[in-house]
Write a structure and sequence with these properties.
The protein is of the alpha/beta class. The chain has one domain: Aldolase class I (TIM Barrel, Alpha-Beta Barrel). It contains twelve helices and eight strands. An eight-stranded parallel sheet has the order 7-6-5-4-3-2-1-8. The longest helix is centred in the last third of the chain and has 18 residues. It is globular.
Length: about 260
């Protein structure tokens, strides 16, 4: 059975002081969790704070972005080696905000995925369709095209070790979550595409997260779907109580 992973994406929130306060509360709330892998995705400036504050807890550190070169004249970027040095376990790549606001392409995302693996970390690859693409019946073609380029050149072992987060863009930060049926369909299709692109073993092993307005009130329905192996949580992860509740709800499903 695939172990579920619930990961926080704090986006542009929390100073180092605020991250420390969060951890002081959150660690107590999840100290008995054993069936769910937990990840925290702070800003770059709070990465080391979170890495230090989670030592010995099993909580994973997730960076929100990375550049694919090790060094060079790339003002403002952060290299994979720098992330690994501070104790990063996972790196979020391809988030819709990176794609839409900063113009990241699937070719660049593919380079980032390889760079993450090359430095001993694992990627959390975000994919998803816009509301317009959904209305036009293009969800599957969008996901297929993203995965075809994003997974290019990966071995079956690599693809099986990574996480793919299906995040319909129309549900991110809007309060409008996909129905459990739609979320399951998106994750199932994505898993089938991993099988087709990389191999059966990778498709069976890869963990599929759903992301998009997950809250404590809808977590059970979403996390109980057969192809959903966890969630990438945005706004609800900023509050230690809400985030811990989502994790506890998922834990109960896997006991």
């Amino acid at each position: 059975m695939r172990k579920p992973i619930i990961a926080a994406n704090w986006k542009l929130h929390k100073t180092q002081e605020e991250a420390t306060a969060f951890l002081n509360d959150f660690r107590e709330k999840v100290k008995y969790i054993s069936e769910v892998e937990i990840g925290l995705g702070p800003t770059f400036t709070s990465l080391e704070t979170v890495a230090e504050g989670t030592k010995g807890t099993g909580i994973k550190v997730c960076a929100q972005n990375v550049y694919f070169e090790d060094e060079g004249a790339f003002t403002g970027e952060v290299s994979p080696g720098m992330l690994a040095e501070v104790g990063t376990d996972y790196v979020i790549v391809g988030h819709s905000e990176r794609r839409q606001i900063f113009g990241e392409t699937d070719r660049a995302i593919n380079k980032k995925i390889h760079a993450v693996f090359d430095h001993g970390m694992k990627p959390i690859l975000c994919i998803g369709e816009t509301e317009e693409q959904r209305a036009d019946g293009k969800t599957e073609s969008v996901l297929r095209n993203q995965l075809k380029i994003d997974l290019r050149g990966l071995t079956e072992d690599q693809a099986g070790e990574m996480i793919v987060a299906y995040e319909p863009i129309w549900a991110i930060g809007t309060g409008e979550s996909a129905s459990p049926e739609d979320a399951q369909a998106g994750c199932k299709f994505s898993r089938d595409q991993v099988r087709e692109i990389v191999g059966e073993q990778a498709g069976d092993s890869v963990r599929l997260q759903y992301g998009g307005s997950i809250k404590p009130h809808n977590a059970e329905e979403l996390m109980s779907q057969p192809d959903i192996d966890g969630g990438l949580i945005g706004s609800a992860s900023l509050d230690p109580g809400s985030f811990a509740e989502i994790i506890s709800i998922t834990e109960e499903l896997y006991k």
